[in-house]
Amino acid sequence: MKKGIIALLTICLAAANATAAQVPQLANVQARNITSLNGEWNYIIDVQEEGYYDYRMNPTAWGFFRNAKPQRPEDLIEYDFDKAAVMNIPGDWNTQNEQLFFYEGTVWFKRTFEWHHKADDHRTILYFGAVNYEARVWVNGRNAGYHVGGFTPFNMDITDLLTDGDNFVIVKVDNKRKAENVPTQIFDWWNYGGITRDVLLIDVAPVYIENYKLCLDKSAPDQISFNVNLNEKLAGQQITLSIPELKITKKLVTDDNGTAQVQFKARKLQLWSPDNPKLYDVEITLADETLNDRIGFRTIETKGKQLLLNGKPIFLKGISIHDEKPNGGGRTNSVDDARTLLSWARELGCNYVRLAHYPHNEYMVREAEKMGILVWSEIPVYWTITWTNPDTYANAERQLTDMIRRDQNRANVLIWSVANETPHSPERDKFLSSLAKTARSLDDTRLISMAMEVTSASNYKNRLQDNMNEYVDVISFNQYIGWYRDVNDAPKMEWEIPYDKPVIVSEFGGGARYGLHGDKNERWTEEFQENLYIENLAMLDKIEGLVGTTPWIMKDFRSPRRVLDGIQDYYNRKGLYSDKGEKKKAFYILQSWYSTK
């Protein structure tokens, strides 16, 4: 009897693991023939992962992913998605169900949808903008794919798993923190679980444009470079690039690798900049498929301690931002969220934002591009990663690759950042230098940086020393003089940065509870934060080669590390705006300083 159950379980597992084809990330998803699966999804909270492991009573109906239904009155099936509660997707579970506010673990999600066969052998791709953190996906009870990482998109070809008519997709989402993850177990933001970004079905031809890059050539800034690749290594396929406003039409033919490239002169080109965020309509056509995009052209480089945009020095008037909704907590998931946050940055006087500490929603990057706001984008290599674990490195490199692949055509992306506040060690240097080399190999038209820590301090002299200096284009560091170091130290502070590269102060600041007033030396008051900004900005003005700042942070954001009752209440209070969007006094100090730059 026991052998029979084991054999039956083996057959069941084999069927469940009949997988769909994993496919590389698609460029410009929104321009394709898409069907949204956003909306209400049924969900089941599974604290002990019974739905994944519990086959004790009925191996043939093993696992929630089968969406099993009783066939006879005596059948025992201890779950029913159709009777389960619903949750809005995209969205995090922490802010949609108060029982899940602190929850870290497994939640199952299920959505039914209608699909019909295409007469011309088109394929169907299932796309997720992001799922935090581990996602296991089944379509009609069969394995569709697996993804690790909470902030980058992934997709899979599910054509062979679909049936004509009604179908269902089930996703097991697990946001438990682990030492080997990226980020690791400890981080200073809320661990929002769930399917946090768009879910789409994408209809594509058997041969389609997988990815492309269109930009000014780094070696010849008066020349446009275009590279494109297909989903298959297929030679002889004709691709047409058109930029109507520039009266440009180029025809390319793919090589044996399914790739094609061309360079050509750009005449009378208006360059993208914060003052003139010019975007050109672009059309890329393969057979009957045309992808429409809006792309800007600009150059970015360093010269000694200068940062040059389109050949001219620029000062980056920035602010750091978390991917959290403008009013209260919760992951951003809409164009409106992005526009609100970016409009606050604009009101502050910013031409630049640091999207910390992980890739933000694609809406954020695209809306910033339209508004003329430059972007620092980074992956969550945060604090102490397991530097010697090969799987951890592979995870980080995959997130870096996916971030670059998604946003490589956005003119406003200025910097790819590979880390934040990582303690020094030979193992860390090897890990991060490899990431920097990967970023440069994927995209040499942008700058590489990371948020370093100041490790050498003597009295009131700080010297920045970091072996990663040779791998980055911009020296960036975080400092919290006046908050984690003695109050009122800033006026006495001197800085030595022994590298002939531009400098960005990637973080500084201090906390204040909106509406709490008192003396400038009384912590948590708006006056304390205001004075901290006054003294820090005067100190920063003395740093040689300073080309920008991104103070920490634009708005108060949720963090489980911030537990002070009546003050923090699980919010990091370093925002210039409160969690409800109210301006603190320090806002006006920074706004005034930026008006002089």
Care to describe what's here?
Helix 3 packs across helix 4 and helix 7 (526-540) runs parallel beside helix 8. By secondary structure, the chain is an alpha+beta fold. 17% of the residues lie in helices and 32% in strands. The strands form nine sheets. Strands 24-25-26-27-28-31-33-34 form an eight-stranded parallel beta barrel. It has a six-stranded antiparallel sheet with strand order 4-3-5-11-8-9, with no helix packed on it. The longest helix is centred in the C-terminal third of the chain and has 18 residues, at 390-407.
Explain briefly what this protein structure is.
It is built from 8 helices and 36 strands. By secondary structure, the protein is an alpha+beta fold. A hairpin with a 4-residue loop joins strand 16 and strand 17.
